[in-house]
Design goal:
By secondary structure, this protein is of the alpha+beta class. Helices cover about 30% and strands about 30% of the residues. The chain has helices spanning about 10-20, 25-35, 80-95, 110-115, 145-150, and strands at about 1-5, 40-45, 50-60, 65-70, 100-105, 120-125, 135-140. Strand 3 (about 50-60) and strand 4 (about 65-70) form a beta hairpin. The longest helix is centred in the middle third of the chain and has 15 residues, at about 80-95.
């Protein structure tokens, strides 16, 4: 399985996953994200088949927002969401963002637990956040310049043009 940047040919499969995962559906948003923020739109691919995706963007000078994360039915609970999240957070770090945020339905306890395992902290409830009136929980995670290196466990630069010389396995 690989995580790579979204390509326009992935659009149909991403929409299939999005429609099976979410009750609110706006396919045009995904093409807008790709056109305006292609580095923040990633897909998980297995044998040429798109099995998940994540979309994130720069919300403000210091915060990145996870707009959407979904994994195809039959591939959930296999670490794919974690791989996608671990791929998008370094994108935020290279943009010098200090926080990542997202919202999750108050009824979606499974997703809330996943985000907590990824070190997101519930911050507040947005009443009536979703179009059906359901509340949303806003969750945030603090990012550091080291996040990219620890998540990637590689010798890739933490910031473009700068090298680092540490890896996660050197510290455990």
């Amino acid at each position: 399985m690989i995580v790579r940047n979204f390509e326009p040919s992935d659009f149909e499969e991403v929409l299939e996953i999005e429609s099976e995962a979410f009750s609110e559906h706006n396919p045009f948003l995904y093409m807008n994200f790709y056109e305006m923020n292609s580095e923040g739109f990633l897909v998980a691919e297995y044998n040429g088949y798109i099995i998940g995706f994540i979309v994130g963007y720069k919300l403000s000078d210091n915060e990145g927002r996870i707009f959407s994360l979904a994994v195809r039915d039959g591939f959930r609970s296999m670490g794919i969401g974690t791989m996608l999240m671990n791929a998008i957070l370094p994108v935020f770090v290279t943009k010098f963002l200090h926080y990542a945020s997202l919202e999750v339905r108050i009824s979606n306890s499974r997703a809330q637990e996943f985000y907590k395992r990824m070190d997101f902290i519930p911050c507040w409830v947005e009443h009536g956040y979703y179009s059906d009136g359901e509340d949303g929980i806003i969750m945030k995670k603090r990012l550091t310049p080291f996040t990219s290196a620890f998540l990637n466990d590689s010798n890739k630069p933490v910031f473009p043009g700068k090298k680092h010389s540490f890896r996660l396995r050197d510290y455990i």
